[in-house]
Amino acid sequence: MTFQPGQSGNPTGKPKQKPLRDALLLAIKRVDKDDKIKLNAMAEALVEKALAGDVIAFREIADRVEGKVAQQTIVTGDEEGGPVRVEEVRRSIIDPRHPDGAGVQAAAGTGPV
Q1: DSSP at 26
Q2: What is the pLDDT of residues 5-16, one digit of tens each?
Q3: Is residue 11, in this structure, part of any structural domain at all?
C-alpha cells in the first residue's frame, strides 16, 4: 500500500489508552458481598459524608447534580491599549454558623474561599 504525500497513513490517530480509567471502571462495576454494585456503595458513602457535614462531599454532589457554578472572568483594558486587568468573580458557600465563613474548607489548589 502506498501513501499519498500529505495524507496520513493513520487518519484516526493512535488510540488513546487510559489504563487507570479502564481499571477503575472495571472495579466499580463489580458486585460486592451484599450484591450491590460498588458504584452504588460509593455514591451512598458520598451522600453520608455530605449529610455528616463534609463540605467537600456536598460540593461534589452539587457539582454533579446541579452543574458547577459558572465563574465569570472579566477582561478590561484602557482605550490606548494599556495594561489589561483581569477580575475573577467567585461565589462560595459559607457556614451560616460562622458569619466570617470559618469552618468552610476550600478544595485543594483553589486558594481561599
Answers
A1: H
A2: 777 777 777 777
A3: no
Q: In terms of residue numbers, what domain contains 49? A: 19-69
Question: How far is CA 82 from its chain centroid?
Answer: 35
Which cell is 5 given? 504525500
Burial class for 58, CB neighbours closer than 10 Å (0-12, 13-18, 19+): middle
41 in a structural domain:
yes
DSSP string, 38-63: HHHHHHHHHHHHHHTT-HHHHHHHHH
Could you give the dihedral angle defined by the CA atoms of residues 35, 38, 44 and 48, in that order, rounded to the nearest 10 degrees?
A: 110
pTM above 0.70, yes or no: no
- Displacement of CA 7 from its chain's centroid (Å): 38
With beta carbons less than 8 A apart as the criterion, state whether 113 and 104 touch.
Answer: yes
Hey, what's the cell of 93? 458557600
Alpha-carbon distance of 58 to 113, in angstroms, equals 15
